[in-house]
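Q: Hi! First time doing this. I have a protein sequence and I read that you can turn it into a structure. Is that right? Here it is:
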Amino acid sequence: MVPDTFTLIATDGEARAGILRTAHGDVPTPVFMPVGTKATVKGVDPDELRRLGATIVLGNTYHLHFRPGAETVAELGGLHRFMGWDGPILTDSGGFQVFSLRDTLLACDEDGVTFRSVYDGESARFTPESVAAVQALLGSDVAMCLDVCPPATATRADAERAVELTTAWARRQAQAPRARGQLLFGIAQGGVDPELRRRSIEEIVGLGFDGHALGGLSVGEGRDAMLETVAAAAPLLPAAKPRYFMGIGDPLGILDVIAHGIDMFDCVLPTRVGRTGSALTWAGRLNLRNARFARDPAPLDDGCDCPACTRFSRAYVRHLVTQREILGLRLLTLHNLRFLTALTAGARAAIEAGRLADFIREARSRLAATPEETLCP
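A: Yes, that's right. Below is the predicted 3D structure, encoded as structure tokens:
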């Protein structure tokens, strides 16, 4: 473990405020990580990300491995220089994509996983050592272990097998070479089964990683079951290391996992719904294609300091969206990212002030989420 990776600043109940230290700078936590799947947060340049409050972004090992290739990125100075982002970057292992794209899965065994590339259909192989090598070439600040992520519908036998392989692969990846200063996070599986989840956490924690993630959630299980699992699992993770929930990005969901002691989270939700014409606001999710906004002079969200809200009306943004103007989708994307970074910063300040419960209560009274908006798409 790299020394002094994480410092706990304050707690409020189970919630935590801290600082994650990386080779490319410090990250105040809790933190929402915008997803830059293919070395870009869709529609947003790095300077804009900084102004929106982003401090760390996520890159996708699966996609970057195929296009443009880790060797190409390395030749061009590494992922930071390649994408023009000088802040911290976390790269996932690509394992989630392998198992979420189940139609491409060919074989999964003790050594690794074989699948067909979504780009050309050719057979490809991921092992703990190969994904470690790819992430080392990319030069990310935080690398993730290769894991097996079963769907919520998996049988207990399949979930148990996923735990076994995830531990075996993590043990091997812990010994693989890394980029200089690169942190390595382990991932615990187990679905919503309390026994399997506890077992996976114990096994992964025992390997001494720099941080720990809860994987295999937000994959189709009910919200109540997911939160019960997080509530039981988070206290089992080391208090002195960062805790990462993989794949949550709706406002209430973010607040829920923060309250249960999660430090880091990511999701494509803010950029994806922006590109479909919707805004995340304190009045819930607004579909700007709706005719009721055609003459609405108000900003997307009162009090928001994003480029959309400080200059343009809902009517104008709706006009751009309905006319398929790229600016409209960009403005919504910028707004949604700012909404989540501001929400997370507000939660951190509330933790430091010892009033997170009041902050969440106030947020719940304002937000108007609907059931289909809760999980990361």
